[in-house]
Amino acid sequence: MNLDAEYSKLTLDTKPKMALIVLDGLGDIATKEQQYMTPLEAARTPNLDALTKDSAQGRMIPVAPGITPGSGPGHLGLFGYDPIEFQVGRGVIETLGLGIELKSGDVAARANFCTINEKGLVTDRRAGRIPTEKCEELCKILASKIKKIGDTEVIIRPGKEHRFVVVFRGKGLEGPLTDSDPNREGLPIAVVKAQNAKSAKQKKAAKLVNDFYKLALPLLKGKQPANGFLMRGIAHQPAIPTFQERYKLRPVCLAVYPMYKGLAQLVGMVKIEGPQTIREQFERFLLEYEKYDFFFIHFKYTDKHGEDGNFDAKKKAIEEFDAALPILLGKKLDVIAITGDHSTPCKIKGHSWHPQPVLLHSPYSGSDKLQRFTETGANTGSLGIFEAKYLIRLMQANAKMFDKFGA
Amino acid sequence: MNLDAEYSKLTLDTKPKMALIVLDGLGDIATKEQQYMTPLEAARTPNLDALTKDSAQGRMIPVAPGITPGSGPGHLGLFGYDPIEFQVGRGVIETLGLGIELKSGDVAARANFCTINEKGLVTDRRAGRIPTEKCEELCKILASKIKKIGDTEVIIRPGKEHRFVVVFRGKGLEGPLTDSDPNREGLPIAVVKAQNAKSAKQKKAAKLVNDFYKLALPLLKGKQPANGFLMRGIAHQPAIPTFQERYKLRPVCLAVYPMYKGLAQLVGMVKIEGPQTIREQFERFLLEYEKYDFFFIHFKYTDKHGEDGNFDAKKKAIEEFDAALPILLGKKLDVIAITGDHSTPCKIKGHSWHPQPVLLHSPYSGSDKLQRFTETGANTGSLGIFEAKYLIRLMQANAKMFDKFGA
Known about the structure:
The structure is a homodimer. By secondary structure, chain A is α/β, with parallel strands linked by helices. The first copy, chain A, has 2 domains: about 5-85 and about 240-400, Alkaline Phosphatase, subunit A (3-Layer(aba) Sandwich), CATH 3.40.720.10; about 90-235, Alpha-Beta Plaits (2-Layer Sandwich). Chain A has 14 helices and 14 strands. The first copy, chain A, has helices spanning about 5-10, 40, 45-50, 70-80, 90-95, 130-145, 200-220, 245, 260-265, 280-290, 300-305, 310-330, 375-380, 390-400, and strands at about 20-25, 55-60, 105-115, 120-125, 150, 150-160, 165-170, 230-235, 250-255, 270, 295-300, 335-340, 355-360, 385. In chain A, the strands form 2 sheets. In chain A, strands 10-9-11-1-12-13-2-14 form an 8-stranded mixed β-sheet, sandwiched between helices. In chain A, strands 3, 4, 5, 6, 7 and 8 form a 6-stranded antiparallel β-sheet that branches. In chain A, helix 11 runs antiparallel to helix 12 (about 310-330). The longest helix of chain A has 21 residues, at about 200-220. The radius of gyration of chain A is 22 Å and the shape is globular. The interface between A and B is large, with 43 and 31 residues.
């Protein structure tokens, strides 16, 4: 049974206007330490409350019960792609986030400068977090000396601080490969290997990466503190059907952080540059309104403060979001979904497996008669607890994008 | 997509301490006859109530919607094995319950003495429920005369009353076979056949069982009332990955009844003998605490009284359990799950398909802000209604046993 094929057959090209608003890591847990309140429950959210009145609620399992997703699978799920079926390497995501368009067959690696001692052992996995300018300077040196290895083109681009990416563009290459990052200090840079020893393409790619090391390390010799580098998440861009093909939607991404722009681009979203705050993102939405059908708007700070275990800051981030929300509501959208890509409970200080709450608002969502949008309320909502990959199907349904199935 | 393989890849060997406490047949239904209260709702449970405050709740579908499980599939599901994928014959379960360790390739049958008349027709399928001593005596006769059939070893062991088991240990054998039990009186003992006519191993096993009859029936000739026997659930031990392999956990079983010990043993749990009451089981848990990671504790009486349709006794059994619970709480477990293997509603006087309530307690379970652990409360819990096979994955997540999925 191929459910996606059935959805496709039913899809009507109605050119709706929909927004998927992701408060990264929104979900949380009620604990004694915080008087059994979650940040979403503790926050003052008059605009969300007003929207709630005419909305449905539920909770979403990001990947599968008990599984804590990274940002990649978290967003792939929200975009309606099964995160287990569509696995994307970190190298690919980082590369896309830097605005580099990957071609079919490219192998991309997330890299960062590190410090190694005279014995070749890693003494600082982040090279003291060198400033971005220093990283740019070092990448320039590497890029000017290493343009090709055999027939394979090598593309090197700096990121923020000690981070950069390397793309290998050639024939017969494939990921995923093992990391060269030994994951802790005191060990040497690891030799990169094919994850599947039977794949000739992975083996060729692994040899290329190891050859790249032989050329690049001598160029960094004597530099301090960045005299080495580590590579992780070395993978190729998987074949992912685009949003346009899959949903008959023209999608656009309004995100601030490169990672989320990269993820959006991976599924064929147009990437908008410029906005730096949620207010600016919503204002830009007003300007772009006519040009697209589907707006993915990403708010980072709920996750950031959750990761820091800062309950008050997470609560305030939600309030900041709520205060900006009326800007978005200035345009009449057919469907609005507000959710997270996963939970980031303050107590856990990291991503978690707890289903994130979701609010779905449309003229046809119905009202769950809840006063507020909260985790506890969402438990009792009409959407139930469902896999995140179905959210976009529910949004499409609410936008009347599906024909009746059968007579 | 193999989800279990993904869970395995993510599993960290954190040596947590977890308890899965099964109140057999716990779930019930609220009916007018009982003033719309379930036994769990009617029971006085101060200790469960206190635990509830910092716990999540939900309900679990034991196998699939509408399916009423036997004890085998009910427990296999709780242990995280899809009960449709991993089907275990009753013969195998009974054999394990008698403490006989099965070897790969063994075919085991559940048997019981019966009465046949001079025409060979079954007149009493249970031979008047002969006393256990009589059964032991008859099994001794059979076992002393039939040790081997060809190359195949035959192991005969008495159970309670008219029940016994027969194990065929040889090469090239496989189940499942059809029953020899005609299922009603007035019919002859049925010839046993392969369930899959194309399986040479099943056919060989069927011939063995029929040959066994030819040797055994003459030995019972003239005995009254047990002059024949019936065989059911003739099957081999399926290949089930052990708890250790699958979850990186050292599991132990604290059960009183043989059936549940057998089920636990099937998935590689260590079987503890001795405790006869829930207090004794909890006290033994304290003694065994250091040696294991995962404690399966089985309480039978909720099911027993549900089967009898005795509401008050089921309620009292829950109260008895609740009174003993503080003994368990004397050790600081990382995760506690309290549930049933299925529902046994008093009104139905038998197992049912109704999802059983589950309570999950850990420092990271969050609070569902419920005052009590009940079927109705569990309907609104953050765990939702989910398949029982995922419970152990949620327990693992709560014990921080899973690495993050993807970047």
